[in-house]
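Amino Acid Chain and Its Fold in Token Form
===========================================
Structure side: the spatial fold of the chain, written down as a series of whole-number tokens.
Position: the record begins directly beneath this header, with no further notes in between.
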Amino acid sequence: MFDIRRSMADVSGLPRRRSLRRPQTFLMLDLMIPTQQILGLRFFNGNVDEAVAFMHRHGGYLVAPSGTCFARLREDEPYRCAMLSADLAIADSGLMVLTWRLLRREKVQRISGLKYLKQLLAKLEREGSARVFWILPGTRARQKLLDCFRSEAFAVKIEDCYVAPQYGLEVDDRHVLARIEKDRPAHVVIAIGSGPQEKLGHYLCENLSYRPAIHCTGAALGFITGEQVAIPDWADRFFLGWLLRLIAQPHRFIPRLIRGFELPWLIARYGNALPPVRLRDQKSELPPSPKLRRDRR
């Protein structure tokens, strides 16, 4: 176990520590958490209050993959490792939940990243004492956050915000690691987008000397602060958040949406199992499109 009270003697060099964390599967089983395994990931199968309480009590890092993220499990090994190591995964993808129910006749409770983050912020506002550190994609997102929570019970301060750089395939950010070690916040919210944020959450958990609750919720914070298009509760409830984002930013969202169409095929083929890594020079296993089939005749 991590000793939360332990302080670092020297954070300047920040040597890489041997991880004491237990894999996601064992932690969930030990604590008798209801889960459903889909594509090798164990998704929490309770309600949002239970998910927030779990993270508040046990710390670690939470992931909320959207439907467009699953193809990345086969192509990006650091991302794959980060997803498998997460302490809690919530079913943000309505497409995944619906596909699983249609093909497997099993129900998975959907908890969107937006719903989860709203519930977390409400809990923190009620308590009013826990310190939160925010990792953001840019200065505009930071200003929106500061403006949005200026009058709240846990008003956000600029010193609690960090604008992340553009990360490469591997994430190694000793600047943010040193800041979190120094301030030791109880919660870290990472809102830099899917892929880099899960790798950063994994990196922080592997290298911090204590165990905060790290919430990788992607665009959800932008929906709340107004940095991105607002998603009403009814749209989130009926899995229509993607449609509002598509209307607001079609040039950005259409390519991501196309990638999401791979998810039903992945579930039909692999079910509970983790899909194998697809090598770069390996041909796609997806069935050819009708146009390609016509061209081959």
Observations:
- Residues 72 and 79 are 7 Å apart (CA to CA).
- Strands lie at 35-38, 41-44, 60-63, 88-89, 132-136, 161-163, 187-190, 213-216.
- The two ends are 62 Å apart (CA to CA).
